[in-house]
Amino acid sequence: MRLVVLGGGESGVGTAILGKQKGYDVFVSDFGKIKENYKEVLIKNGIDWEDEKHTESLILNADVVMKSPGIPEKAAIVKKLVEKGIPVISEIEFAAPFTKAITIGITGSNGKTTTTMLTYHLLKSAGLNVGLAGNIGKSFAEQVAEDKYDSYVLELSSFQLDGIINYKPHIAIITNISPDHLDRYDYKYENYIDSKFRITMNQTEEDYLIYDADDEAISEWLKKNKTKAKLIPFSLTQTFEEGAFIKDNTMEVIINQEEFKMETESIALEGKHNFKNAMAATSVAKLMQIRKATIRESLSNFQGVEHRLEKVLKIQNVQYINDSKATNVNATFFALDSMTTPTVWIVGGVDKGNDYNELMALVREKVKAIICLGVDNRKIIDAFGNVVDIMLEVNNMNDAVKMAQRITEKGDTVLLSPACASFDLFENYEDRGRQFKEAVHNL
Predict the structure, then answer these.
(1) Which domain does 49 fall in, by range?
(2) Where are the alpha helices (DSSP H) in 111-187?
(3) Dihedral (C-alpha) 357, 358, 359, 361: value to the nearest 10 degrees?
(4) At which positions is ATP bound (predicted)?
(5) Binding-site residues from annotation
(6) Where is the binding site for ATP, in residues?
(7) Which CATH number characterizes residue 13's domain?
(8) Closest CA to 1 of 30, 29, 28, 22
(9) Which of 78, 202, 309, 389 is the most exposed place for a label (fewest CB within 10 A)?
(10) 344-396, pLDDT tens digit by residue?
(11) Same domain, 56 and 126
């Protein structure tokens, strides 16, 4: 069996290692440059590879192709594979059959990283032998090759779900759905929504789907479509006989007639959206039969995720917050919504077809100044130019932070929450967040 791996990054190299271990004839091809550390791994494992090109004669003879999530369906080589009827799948689809471990799959437009990390924290703190993979950390395929975990918490992007055929998580979570990455879905929101719901398409009556019952797109889809999985809703406004909800400042989770209660003020993560993440993660912990005391302790000591509403420093009574992970408008909505002091907002980058109107009321109420950090800021200036008193443009992080310091007063907040991708000025959102933190520390 010939396995061709497109993309020589984390998921590609992990898949190649697992494929080789399972007796496949493996070839890795990357149209860009493969990083030195990944090349070394491929060479050490005796795996053939090429970079900065796709040699068709070495690719179109594949029995199966694993496509890295960053490569669009529209890529010429992918179209040719599909025309030839060669299955093009994701890393998750390739690796899942080689493990007996239970998987917990988590998707959504926002909150999925926090929910994934919190779920992992709950299970690990309870002493479960659990791995963490998907969009985070070490590749799922490579961990399956090492075969040391009984269960996995997987953060799954829509791109990873597009490449599944038979994969099903035992427990699936959809945190929420808002327009994102529409450039990859022919600018059709319904295509993107369908893509997220692939997480439940192979689930059976034995499996569970945990979902945000306040989310319009999710509720609409569930009205029109069926899943066999047992449904477990969570909500800030409704209550359920089975599910998770907030009532009188208490989080309640009822599953299989068992009830778990915890005061919301004891939950380490702040903000309404984080109560939702906590309800989703706690529902998993209950399904995995983790003790109440352990859940309580884990929820009260969880540290949060880097680059997601991360408090960096307080300087001259001004709080600097790194929310670089907010790469779409909906994520920035949560960030602005949780601000309680006058805010200097650093925003901008590569726009994925953003509609800034939904932020208008929050900007009017909370934002005193906007600093645009991007190559093309026209849309942001058009949207908010008449709403805030100060609108500035910069093209590097140091200037953004220095400028912010100049216009803040005691008691203000400086919030980096870009609502955009980072690829115009930075390598990725992590690089953007790290540069912000460094600039703040240098003030």
Answers:
(1) 2-89
(2) 112-125, 140-146, 158-162
(3) 90
(4) 108-114
(5) 108-114
(6) 108-114
(7) 3.40.50.720
(8) 22
(9) 389
(10) 999 999 987 889 998 999 999 999 999 999 988 999 999 999 999 999 999 99
(11) no
